[in-house]
Amino acid sequence: MGTVMHSEGRAAPVVGSGTAKRFGYVAAALVNVVLLFVANNVLAWGWPAFLTGDFADLLPLISLSLGLTVLFNIAYLNYDPDWFKAVTRIGLDVISMVLAVRTFQVFPFDFSAYSFDWAPVARFAIVLGMVGIGIGLLVELVNLLRSGIRSETGDQNDR
Prior knowledge:
Helix content is 67%, strand content 4%. The chain is mainly alpha-helical. A two-stranded antiparallel sheet has the order 1-2.
């Protein structure tokens, strides 16, 4: 539980902050379960029309990423120190980067039915996603280093 400083200088606990975090973990896990279901059924549903059968080549990585996200969010309900979240997020970022690169290689999209050629836009979006994942990976590495420094100095906010 966090604290807030009163104007008199004494600390008061922040009520509900732990509950909000736990709610967020549960919500994230549930959303990713739904996404896992959708990803594994979207080809059978035939929607969206521009998605090709090559999407199936990406399903193992998609399922791994979404499944681990569910697992980690459930784990955070009972254990969520900053260093642990940074390590798990680094792992997820690495998987996401592999998935993005593989998506770029497989490119399971067919935009030939459209008057505008969306392929370059889609490829640009994938590359932009890779840049974002790379930035996220660097941020989590910094978070991991910072949590190690806090642990060394005895900061109790890091459990």
